[in-house]
Design a protein that fits this description.
The structure is a single chain. The model is unreliable at 318-326 (pLDDT under 50). α1 crosses α3 (125-153) and α5 (175-183) packs across α7 (290-316). By secondary structure, this protein is of the alpha+beta class. The longest helix is centred in the middle third of the chain and has 29 residues, at 125-153. Helix content is 27%, strand content 44%. The protein has helices spanning 19-27, 32-35, 125-153, 158-161, 175-183, 277-282, 290-316; strands at residues 5-15, 39-48, 51-58, 66-75, 80-85, 92-105, 108-119, 162-171, 195-204, 207-215, 221-231, 236-243, 248-259, 265-275, 324-325. It has an eight-stranded antiparallel beta sheet with strand order 9-10-11-12-13-14-8-15. A hairpin with a 4-residue loop joins β4 and β5 (80-85).
């Protein structure tokens, strides 16, 4: 391939949802980890009017975890977001394009991706790897469009299905000790009451894949699988459960350690979840409705957070106050 050769990609999906709803999901990156397969975490960097920047961590289809930095220009009137990647990685020299929404009919809209990727000059065996990278990028783009479509088509129920909350505990130990305890999730069985098994692998330092067997309050067991990305210097661990609780379609969150003015710190467990509407409907008993499911999930995750934070507090050798829900 010659230096600077451009590859253009165009794909679209039609959604049974108003155009404004679909564009709002494109513009707001907050819940992308709940809607887009493979997206683990989105960190806003800055925003200035109709321009914003963010860093995105992803692991599409169990591939290696990677991060990328993006800049966008948003035009709500035109239902369009122009984007470019600020840190393209070989074999790509540049990645830029647009996401636009078109009104098709009342209650119907189309989301179109137009993207141009410039490839650095490569030859020989590298050519095949470049073709594979382009094919993977297109596969991931189509999966992202479909994820936004599915979310948009739930728009009437989305507020009832989405839930965010946090729990926190004040600890008289050091932040380093606390983060160390939360980092070593493989040591939780026997220490965290609801965790009976943990299989953990490190893709590289700070990037973990964890499979945990957990026990519900009624004694039944269920398995979760997670990808965790750790930022020890910032006192944070972000995670996305690729196999969440049976009542959930998606679950992501964060552990963060916040130093206090005095001796000690506050540990925060944040959660963002998307209920699985079909699983809720199939749930036995009188709780087969979103509101009852929200309460049940809230209780389960609060119990899990309380147990994990409790063992972290003990590991740090500090006494803490009871968890406070926010």
């Amino acid at each position: 391939m010659s230096v600077g050769r451009a590859h253009r990609m165009s794909c679209a999906v039609d959604a049974a949802a108003p155009a404004g709803v679909l564009y709002a999901l494109v513009a707001d990156t907050t819940h992308w980890p709940l809607f887009l397969p493979g997206v683990l975490h989105v960190e806003p960097l800055d925003a200035d009017g109709d321009t914003d920047g963010f860093r995105l961590w992803s692991a599409p289809e169990d591939s290696a975890v990677s991060s990328s930095r993006w800049r966008r220009n948003l035009d709500a009137g035109a239902l369009r977001a122009d984007f470019r990647r600020e840190d393209p990685q070989a074999p790509f020299a540049s990645v830029a394009g647009s996401l636009s929404v078109t009104r098709l009919a009342p209650g119907w809209s189309r989301l179109t991706l137009e993207q141009e990727t410039t490839v650095s000059g490569v030859s020989g065996p590298s050519t095949a790897r470049t073709r594979q990278a382009l094919a993977t990028a297109e596969r991931d783009a189509r999966a992202a469009l479909n994820g936004l479509r599915v979310a948009a088509e739930r728009w009437k129920d989305l507020d009832a299905l989405l839930m965010t909350f946090e729990d926190r505990v004040r600890v008289a130990g050091t932040g380093e000790q606390l983060l160390e305890s939360l980092y070593h999730v493989g040591a939780w069985p026997g220490r965290v009451p609801h965790v009976v098994r943990a299989d953990v692998t490190e893709e590289r330092p700070g990037v973990q894949r964890a499979t945990l067997v957990r026990v519900n309050g009624d004694g039944s067991a269920y398995t979760t699988e997670s990808v965790r990305v750790c930022f020890p210097a910032a006192g944070r661990i972000v995670h996305r459960r690729t196999r969440p609780h049976p009542l959930l379609a998606a679950h992501c969150g964060e552990w963060s350690v916040l130093p206090d003015a005095g001796a000690g710190c506050t540990v925060v467990a944040r959660h963002a979840v998307l209920l699985d509407g079909r699983a809720v409907e199939r749930a036995p008993g009188p709780g087969a409705d979103p509101e009852s499911a929200r309460r049940r999930v809230r209780e389960v995750l609060r119990r899990e957070s309380e147990a994990a934070l409790g063992q972290a507090r003990q590991s740090a050798g500090g006494e803490g106050r009871a968890l406070r829900a926010v």
